[in-house]
User: What shape does this take?
Amino acid sequence: MLRSRRLLFLLILLAIFATSVYLLRNQDSFEELPGLSNPLHDFTNPLRGHHAHEENPPLLPQRSLTHPIHRLITDAESTFQTVRARQSRSLADAVAEYRRRYKVPPPPHFDKWYNFAKRRGVELIDEYDTIYHALLPFWSLKPSVIRERTREAIGFDNALIAVMIRNGKVVKMDGGGEMYQWHRDATPVMLGNFIKYLPDMDLAFNIHDEPRVVVQADSLARHVSAGRKNMTLAYNSPSPRNSFSKRPSDLGDGMRIKDYRTTRFNKFAHQPTWSNSKLSCPLTSPARGCIDSDCHVNITAYSDQPLGFIRNTTAFSDICNSPSLEHIRLLRPPQRLRLSSFQDILYPSPWYYMDRVKYEPERDMPWAEKNATMYWRGSTTGGFSRDGGWRRQHRQQFLMKIQPQATSQILQYTPNTTSSTPEIGAWEVHSTPMTPYSKYFDIKFTFIGQCDPGDCDAQREYFGTTDPVNMFDAFQSRYLLDIDGNAFSGRYHAWLQSNSLVYKLAVFREWHDEWLKAWVHYVPLGLRGEEYVESVRYFEEEEGGQQEAKRIAKESKGWAEKVLRKEDLEVWYFRLLLEYGRLVDDEREDIGFGI
Ligand SMILES: *[C@@H]1O[C@H](CO)[C@@H](O)[C@H](O)[C@H]1NC(C)=O
Ligand SMILES: *[C@@H]1O[C@H](CO)[C@@H](O)[C@H](O)[C@H]1NC(C)=O
Ligand SMILES: *[C@@H]1O[C@H](CO)[C@@H](O)[C@H](O)[C@H]1NC(C)=O
Ligand SMILES: *[C@@H]1O[C@H](CO)[C@@H](O)[C@H](O)[C@H]1NC(C)=O
Ligand SMILES: *[C@@H]1O[C@H](CO)[C@@H](O)[C@H](O)[C@H]1NC(C)=O
Assistant: This one.
């Protein structure tokens, strides 16, 4: 317990670029909360091709209707429509839904939050499970312990930004250095519209790109179950008080930050981090269970389709399912990934709030005028390459898969000649030369770096480089790729808002993941890459794909304009901080919002 407490000491680091944390994976599956898991629709029926919400459902040929991508799209679409349709329509509904999901009353001022969200036209008023999962283990700790550890964390040079809130104002901010001035500038602005409802508290924000808090699996499981028990105490409170308690005496007036002489953070610069990253994975998971160095990803966890098309992005981005991540060096520092196994609390990135990358519609063009290519430009970041290690890095692997001389896999339709209705057939995997398909890929490095000289030369020879480009050149392509690197790909929001279709290859999670759905708003890609070629070929060459690509591009644009606004960020942030304010309130069992 002592050890896990020490680790938990590191709490409350709000990972800087919107890290999403689904802690609970195996210990805490949503199956226990009735009705929460999305109904998995009948995806075995190939004839489901119609959408009730479409005006004129297009009639697609059999071959399109049976294609795995078509099925994934229709299933995701219908799940998403179900989620939209079931959103609460009144404060009373929202409170009931909250209590049903989390077995605890909403935090104080939930009515203020609800009105705030409604006024800003938030689309999904009930979907904030990410916050619940991130905070749950901390409920096992006394509020005073959490406060003390926060003070300790910000009282030492731990690369954290400290933000002190007193009487509804930010009274002090410190830490992070000059480079993060923009972060400090943005924080009070982001909080400005709701800070008057927040209790006095100290917050610590992680300035590093990578998450930093990880708890061993067995300890984590204990904290989660104790946390849930403590939450139940609050749930059973007969009539919770709708206000936060007075500032506790240990909190001070926020005018100065007490110095601490010791820190419990470890430094991992230029060391492999994989063995620490997987600490919180259960012993039975593939990541921990892999003993020799030749373990493979178990794709059945996230895919039930040929070529490994991703059905479940949560399972895919759970690094505990991926013993092979070590070998593709996704986790070698310097890294900036926000991973499933970490316990950092996620918050909306000021990067997005400050419009550091902005979509400019006048630089975009209609779908029909775009080139039929998948576009990506970037550098060889994602790990330092030595001794040919680049061959195992994920960006390089992507490029290798689509080289003209490579062999690729696609699906081919084979009509069933013995069937009485001969047009019924099946899609089968075929290996083929890449030549006829390489025209679809406009994917190039603009810079080769993070490598020993020999490795850099080898990569230059193998891939070549092209001149750096204006990011808006991308809009000439129908298909835009977004890949994890170790540099923040802040382009994602702008890509979604464009008239192009977005593909995302990512194991990290962000605050908005709950609101953006794979196969409805973007096409998810895996790390193995067998599906890369088919997932462009289908959209270009199959009748169903042509319609769907255009529609998804349009839907993602419309949806991004509705859910990725500054208003949405504020609403998410407001709710997180109300929850956090209750978590650190000494009377958290007795406070909350009730009707
Ligand atoms: C919460 O749970 C832990 C562990 O079960 C317990 O020690 C603690 O007293 C509980 N209550 C509060 C208020 O933290
Ligand atoms: C892969 O995972 C599934 C469940 O997700 C399990 O039933 C199966 O046995 C696993 N396969 C291997 C080879 O580990
Ligand atoms: C997706 O995977 C997660 C984690 O493995 C699991 O808890 C969840 O039930 C899965 N969702 C669906 C719809 O199968
Ligand atoms: C072809 O159709 C027949 C009759 O409908 C069926 O029994 C058989 O399994 C099908 N074959 C394939 C490869 O789907
Ligand atoms: C399409 O691609 C061609 C050749 O690659 C290029 O010259 C042209 O500018 C592109 N057109 C658009 C609209 O992007």
